[in-house]
C-alpha cells in the first residue's frame, strides 16, 4: 500500500505549493482591507483624484497608449485588485473607440500570456502536485480531459 507520508512527517499535499488555499485568500483580504482603510482615511473621490493625477499625463500620445496596453496585459497575468481602476483610463483619455481597442489589445496579450505560462511553464508542476496529492476531483478532471486522442498532453 502506498503512503502519502514523506520523511518529515508531512503529507505530500501539505508540502505542495498549491496546498494552502487560505494563503491567497489572506493576501487578497489584506489588500482589500488596506485599500478600504485608505479609502476611509482620505475618501474614495480623493483617492481617485490622486490616482488619476499620477496616471494621466498632460498630453497623452501613442506611447502612453502602449504603456496603458502593457499595464492591462500585466494586470491580466498578475491581478492586483486596486489596479483594475486602470481599465477606466483609456476610455477617459482617448475616447470610447480608441480606448476599447487599447483595452482589447491589452486583454488579449495578457490573457494569452497567462495561458501560455500555465500551459507550458507550470503544467508539469501542477500535474505532479495533483497526481501526488489527494485531489480527487482534479484527478478525475485530468482523467476525463486526457482520455481522448486530443488530450492536453
TrEMBL record:
Keywords, ordered alphabetically: Membrane, Transmembrane, Transmembrane helix
Transmembrane segments: 25-43, 64-88, 94-117
Highest rank taxon of the organism: Eukaryota
Protein name, as recorded: Uncharacterized protein
Amino acid at each position: 500500500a502506498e503512503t502519502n507520508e514523506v520523511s518529515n512527517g508531512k503529507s505530500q499535499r501539505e508540502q505542495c505549493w498549491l496546498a494552502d488555499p487560505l494563503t491567497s485568500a489572506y493576501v487578497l483580504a489584506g489588500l482589500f482591507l488596506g485599500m478600504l482603510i485608505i479609502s476611509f482615511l482620505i475618501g474614495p473621490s480623493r483617492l481617485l483624484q490622486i490616482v488619476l493625477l499620477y496616471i494621466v499625463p498632460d498630453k497623452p500620445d501613442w506611447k502612453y497608449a502602449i504603456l496603458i496596453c502593457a499595464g492591462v496585459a500585466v494586470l491580466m497575468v498578475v491581478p492586483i485588485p486596486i489596479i483594475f481602476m486602470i481599465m477606466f483610463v483609456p476610455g477617459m483619455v482617448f475616447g470610447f473607440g480608441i480606448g476599447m481597442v487599447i483595452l482589447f489589445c491589452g486583454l488579449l496579450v495578457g490573457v494569452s500570456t497567462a495561458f501560455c505560462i500555465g500551459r507550458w511553464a507550470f503544467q508539469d508542476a501542477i500535474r505532479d502536485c495533483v497526481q501526488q496529492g489527494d485531489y480527487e476531483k482534479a484527478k478525475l478532471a485530468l482523467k476525463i480531459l486526457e482520455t481522448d486522442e486530443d488530450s492536453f498532453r
